[in-house]
Design goal:
The protein contains 15 helices and five strands. Strands 1-3-2 form a three-stranded mixed beta sheet. Strands 4-5 form a two-stranded antiparallel ribbon. The longest helix has 28 residues.
Length: 387
């Protein structure tokens, strides 16, 4: 969540905000590329762990029926929230004739699908996730005309594009649903490997038992590390081969550093197999490495992880406001309500200022997040589970 805030601070504060893709190796700088690249870990890990948290929610004694109803209701809530409130946080206007579907929208639809998948055997959920993640790049060549009903549906599923669902209404599909549905399902199937103790649910046995005995915490940690490392090695091998798994082949560049950037510059929209291996592999290893008592910094950072949706909903309008305030001497009130896709001339600040603003955002938002984490710990109101 904290790293995600860096990406959005760059969007609003950078002097290259919305001007070009930081992955454009012909125009980017090392600092800008790495700032963007490190934030690539956010969406895959966010979606994956949303699935894992779904498993933990069920493991606290809920039935599959209760979980299914929760996933349906929360999924619908997120599908509506993203193109409305979250869109307003970015644009600060009520022109709903142009809106978009970002990661929260994709998570919402993924939860709706998972609401049905959880009633199937867990091995099937895991297999479904692997097939979708590993095989979806076989669909890259399918591109029906966008002015047909099937063309619009396919863009929602697998092509990042602008569609017109009604006359004068435009919807930008930023996060096509495939393979995000599979990533959420994979996180759900992964949940038992992080469980501190077995919960007596027989369908979990193929993933957490060995020789009829429940795996201990050390054995599960070893299995998690192995899984993550296998994914990392698979990324390197497949990426080096340049044959399958991404629509952007890597190529030798003007120097070794930019050649490395080309190797790491995988497609995020929709996330390719290699993009997900590159991000989820190290993240899964990190889950095992950090599965230990937290130090002072870890405890502070964990506050954001306890209230991820709350942090997500307040960070964008706060960053937008700060950027407007910072640019007020130059542009006046116009700086607060501007089209992020068409910023004024000479808008924004250098990368060091972006990092300083990011640190300030994280420090300030720590306090409302800590307050809300306390509210969730003290109370059990039903609506708290949606935020």
């Amino acid at each position: 969540m904290v790293v995600m805030a860096l990406d959005h601070t760059r969007d609003f504060f950078s002097d290259t905000a919305f001007q070009f893709d930081p992955g454009d190796l012909a125009r980017t700088t090392p600092g800008l590329f790495l700032t963007r690249w490190v934030t690539h870990f956010c969406a895959p890990v966010f979606v994956f762990l949303a699935g894992t948290s779904t498993y933990f929610w069920q493991a606290r004694g809920r039935t599959k029926g209760e979980l299914s109803r929760f996933l349906l209701s929360r999924g619908v809530f997120l599908v509506i929230l993203d193109p409305t409130f979250i869109r307003f946080s970015w644009f600060w206007d009520f022109n709903w004739r142009f809106t978009f579907g970002q990661v929260i929208w994709a998570i919402g639809w993924s939860m709706i699908v998972l609401a049905g998948l959880i009633h199937l055997p867990r091995w099937f959920v895991a297999a479904f996730a692997v097939v979708m993640i590993a095989g979806h790049n076989l669909l890259d060549g399918i591109l029906p005309a966008k002015d047909t009903a099937w063309g619009m549906v396919w863009r929602v599923l697998h092509v990042r594009d602008l569609i017109e669902p009604g006359t004068g209404f435009h919807f930008w599909v930023m996060y096509p649903l495939i393979p995000w549905i599979g990533v959420l399902a994979a996180g759900y199937a992964f949940g038992p490997l992080l469980a501190r103790e077995p919960h007596g649910d027989p369908p979990l046995s193929p993933l957490v038992k060995e020789g009829g005995k429940v795996l201990g915490q050390a054995s599960k940690r070893s299995l998690v590390v192995t899984l993550g490392m296998v994914m990392c090695v698979a990324f390197v091998v497949l990426r080096w081969a340049n044959s399958y798994g991404d629509t952007r082949p890597w190529e030798p560049q003007r120097d070794a550093l930019f050649t490395l950037f080309s190797f790491l510059n995988c497609e995020k929209y929709p996330p390719s197999l290699l993009f997900l291996l590159m991000t989820l592999g190290p993240a899964i290893v990190a889950l095992a490495v950090f599965d230990r008592p937290l130090g002072l910094l870890g405890r502070r950072l964990a506050v954001f992880g306890r209230v991820p949706m709350f942090f997500y909903l307040i960070h964008a309008p706060f960053i937008h406001f700060l950027a407007g305030a910072a640019m007020f001497p130059r542009y006046g009130v116009r700086s607060f309500v501007f089209d992020p896709m068409n910023p004024p001339p000479d808008y924004g600040f250098s990368l060091p200022v972006v990092y300083a603003a990011w640190i300030g955002v994280v420090v300030v938002l720590y306090f409302p997040c800590r307050w809300y984490a306390g509210v969730k710990q003290r109370r059990r109101d039903w609506w708290l589970s949606y935020l």
